[in-house]
Amino acid sequence: MHTIDLAFVGRGLHEELAAYIADQEDFYADENVHVALRDGCAWDEQRLRRGATIGLGRALLSRLTDGIPWVALTVNTQRPLFWFLAHPDVSSLTDLAGRRLAVHEPHTAPGCFARIVLRGAGLDPDHDVHCVVRPPGDYGMDLRRLRDGEIDAAFVGSTMAPEAIAAECGWRMVAWVGDHFQIPTVGVAVDPTHVQPDGPAVQAVVRAHRRAVQVIHNDPDTTVRYLRTFLGRHTEAEVRAHYETFIAPYFTIDGRADLTVADHAITAVAAELAVPATFTAAEFYRTTP
């Protein structure tokens, strides 16, 4: 049996759903590969690059800024599962002007995406919004700070169904990143310096994950059951609504990236990071089997 380390670099179903389904449905076993799912959130790039990673956004930023030659082999979605959750008097992104927004650091993938979306709404994240930078996590402290009035809005990920939280607390889900910025962000990537993209273990993982996205599309009941392990604070009805709104319509069917979308995304990310875009989408995202 082949073995491989597979690291997630963020919390929530956005990162882990396909891998979780592949494991629970025995797709890895079917492919004769033992996958050690690792928490790489705090790992530096040198450690992360010695295995496979789920976090394509971080890999893309790393290739742009550090020159690590990551290659993405399969893609789960190009609609990042991050949202702006805010007090009820914030009805649009432009209303965040002068407000306190809890958000990831600018050099992280979610932080970069948030800044791109804010700029698209005509806001300078360094001057027009009071960005309260906090480390990634389950966003539970953000919800507490929103309730206590310490912040006006929070940029949150997929450890919750934000539309259900907004309804429960009387807040607003001001925007979903996927409506404003598209980029292939989660899947499987490797650094060919250390891990061969065509190696048997890597290809086994790719096949297993592509089977997992088929489950997401073809077996809603099974997918919702697995989603509830990530969204334990929500009712089954809320989880199913979240699946139908944000997951089923936007996860890929075959694991392949849209290179036109990806080229625009690389240009936008490079501009936000103030670095040159030294590679194309075709060089980063593999679209062949």
How would you summarize what this structure contains?
The protein is α/β, with parallel strands linked by helices.
Number of strands: 10
Which second-level CATH architecture of the largest domain applies? Answer: 3-Layer(aba) Sandwich
Topology order in helix (H) and strand (E) letters: EHHEHEHEEEHEHEHEHEHHHHH
**How much is the average pLDDT?**
96
CATH domain fold name of the largest domain: D-Maltodextrin-Binding Protein, domain 2
Counted up, domains total: 2
Characterize the overall form.
globular
Instruction: Report the span from N to C terminus.
Output: 22 Å
What's the helical proportion of residues? 40-55%
The number of helical segments is 13
Poorly predicted regions are: none
Strand order of the largest sheet: 2-1-3-10-4
Proportion of strand residues: 15-25%
Q: Sheet with the most strands?
A: 5 strands, mixed
* CATH classification class of the largest domain: Alpha Beta
